[in-house]
Amino acid sequence: MSAKAFVDTNILVYAHDPASGAKHDRAKALVSRLWEQRSGVVSTQVLQELYVNLCKVAKKPIPQAEAKRMLADYLTWELVVNDGESVLEALELEERYLISFWDALIVQAANAAGVENLYSEDFNHGQMYGSVMAVNPFAES
Q: Where are the domains of the chain?
């Protein structure tokens, strides 16, 4: 079993959107690897955002029943539940790192889960947020 990794909403959206081209291919490969290794972590925020993006925001929305099945699958991953303490911690992270509240809540969840990597395109590739490194899977290495 490999080290746990937190996956932000944008990566999951790309993984499920074939119209995303090269990003779809990379995101799908990453998510598939995390499934195989049983090392994926998400939060309630990520699942909420995934549902809204795939059913309401996407150019080709998916049916709600399909989204529900997809979310149920991701519930087999480790799940970080955002509670009141999470919100307060995110407020501190927002101020410390000068990031949006929503991004701070992602960082808080990743830290709470004790992951090594936070896969997202919304953070500075390679930046450390506490003990968590932001990794943009689309960045040229």
A: 5-134
pLDDT tens, 88-128?
999 999 999 999 999 999 999 999 999 999 999 999 999 99
Q: How far apart are CA 20 and CA 10, in angstroms?
A: 11
Name every residue whose Cβ is closer than 8 Å to that of residue 133 and which is 6 or more positions away in sequence.
116, 117, 118, 126, 127
What is the SS3 assignment for 71?
Answer: helix
* CA-to-CA separations, 118 to 19, 31, 65, 69, in angstroms, rounded: 24, 13, 28, 24
Architecture of domain 5-134: 3-Layer(aba) Sandwich (3.40)
Cβ density class 44-82: b for 16+ within 10 Å, e for less: bbbbebbbebbbeeeeeeeeeeebeebbeebeebbebeb
Q: Is 76 helix (H, G, I), strand (E, B) or coil?
A: coil
